TrEMBL record:
It comes from Erythrobacter dokdonensis DSW-74. The lineage of its organism: Bacteria, Pseudomonadati, Pseudomonadota, Alphaproteobacteria, Sphingomonadales. Residues 1-23 form the signal peptide. Keywords: Hydrolase, Protease, Serine protease, Signal. The keyword Protease applies. GO terms for molecular function: oligopeptidase activity; serine-type endopeptidase activity. This is Prolyl oligopeptidase family protein. Pfam families: Peptidase_S9, Peptidase_S9_N. Residues 37-434 form the Peptidase S9A N-terminal domain. One of its GO terms (biological process) is proteolysis.
Amino acid sequence: MKLVSTLALALAMTITATTGAAAADQAPVDGVPGPEQDPFIWLEEARSKEALDWVAKENERTLAALESDPRFAQLKTEALAIFDSQDRIPFVSFRPDGLYNFWQDKDNPKGVLRRTTLASYRTDNPQWEVVLDIDALAKAEGREWVYKGSTCLPPAMTKCMIALSDGGEDATIMREFDTSTKQFVEGGFVLDEKSQGGIVWIDENTLLVGRDFGTGTLTESEYPFTSRVWKRGTTIAEAEELFRGEASDVWASATLLRDNEGVIHARTAYRGVSFHESLYYVWKDGAWLQLDIPKKARLYGIVDGHLLVSTDVDWTVDGQTFPADSLIAMDLEAWKADPNGAKKTLVWAPGERQTKQGAAITGDSLFVTLLDNVVGKVLEFRFDDGAWRSREVALPDNATLGIAASSDTTEEIMYTVSDFLNPTTLYYTDGSTPPAVLKTSPAYFDPEGMEVAQYEATSKDGTRIPYFIVKPKGMTMDGSTAALMTGYGGFQIASLPSYLGPTGKLWVEKGGAYVLANLRGGGEFGPQWHQTAIRENKQRTWDDFIAVGEDLVKRGFTSPQHLGIQGGSQGGLLVGTAFTQRPDLFGAAIVQIPLFDMLRYHLIGRGASWIGEYGDPRIPEQRAWIEGYSPYQKIVEGVDYPTPFLWASTADDRTHPAHARKGAAKLKALGQPYYYFEDTTGGHSGGVDNEQRAKLQALQFVYLMQRLMDDRSGE
């Protein structure tokens, strides 16, 4: 594989700062590289003038190379048409005063919160009532407000705390809002210092607040670990502390155990002792009582007079063993009387290659979405005649199923049905009849001539790794097809088939193939699929991804010069490990909002919260696991990398733009070709409006076309 063209190299800026082997060889302090070992630590200051000047120059270079491509304008136009489409499904949530939807389009780039009736929603052109206009609010206040949702007081759900982010970062301010008057409440609750954390309504005059209350109230991961009871008419400084975790926790908070009618049955709390482990408590007899449940378990909710618990590990208690991924029930009144002594009953246990995904509780039932060998199912659970009974909901087979919305007080529920090639369909039922089609997304690309197949690759340790490929029918198996491979492989999150939308229009319709890999570390086959590839075994995730790439080449679907990879966040780390461990296997690599410097990740953004997934680089044994794959440290002189495209957001306070910045800076210092782009707003999820999202899509697909579809034999 040759390096990028002479023109791109001429555009690249060289860095003469101290770097390279001499700096890298210096011993880190406590296992953590400092300024002496890392000349690019200054890029960890998200908004310093020096860092932003560097970003501006990098953006100028990258945009000059990609926006000048004659395909860019067309791709952006096509993407924007999809994002702004007026006939896309307006997904809703059920509230007593209507169906609520948050909507963004060309006329409302920041979006509007709006509502309608079910009768109107059933029509092709619902009549919407605007409740809150974020564009108007941002203009009036001169802020780049991004709507981050609302928390409302049940059962009426008209008193809400609206969360707003300035530019898209996770940290928000919160203001009290009345949906009946459609106004912010004068003299109401206001949390005007941006912070992580949130609130729970106790009653109309009382909030339970977890925020940054000043020195000694944030964990190392920069999340709150105290909760206070804030009464109307007092200042937040006067709020009385109800619960306190420890600074060493990832996060900690008190909350309320409510049923579907809004009745509070208990005050509960939790301490996240790692990202995947928590200690749970209940307020009992004037003190916090620790619940005797596994650390890898959680309270699932109240259904028909029972408290349900979900466990991610086998749980042996009272002479019986509940397998990992089970649902267990306890009579609610018995649990309130004796939280650790209440009798436990199995509700559901997974079969082979099954795992539960989402869930919703309606007036009388629990609905759980399952994966059965990566195929979706939905089960309804009810407690009838002294026993738990389940039935499968009648929905299409061989598709990805989700619960889009559910009512707390009735049996109304909406489901999504999706696959790679068919537009998402929304189903509705009020519980009296089987679910029926309510709305269908428009087709955004022509699937004619495309097909989907599923294969398995064999990973380094012999484990079979499934993957899907969307490809042209009858494609020539000579390795000439440009293929884009993606995956995630972390935090027990499943990567599932869904309508390709912009990817279908901008890539597959233009002759490319698309590959989705189901890697260990994800949640496709339950908790064990995740737990077998974390911490000291995280390399298994990277091995799985590489194995899928090798299998694609072996079968003739593509070849290294035509194979690109893409992933964001944990997926960005995945792509970083892949192109640094096997640069010969890939022709392009899109590294989105990534983790990248894994020897300092716990010091950057919210990184310390993920030690449960990756390990702690301050501990020598664990540093050895991480150092074996950390992409930033694996970029070395003399290796021909596949000209990666790294991008990030200045407003990302979760993974932080420093990871992508430092990766680009190191490539630059070694004279390696690369592209770097940084959005000044957008947060961890990318663009905050459709224009921004379309631009990001176009930049990435132009890059992929240049690298994988264009003839580069002369380079």
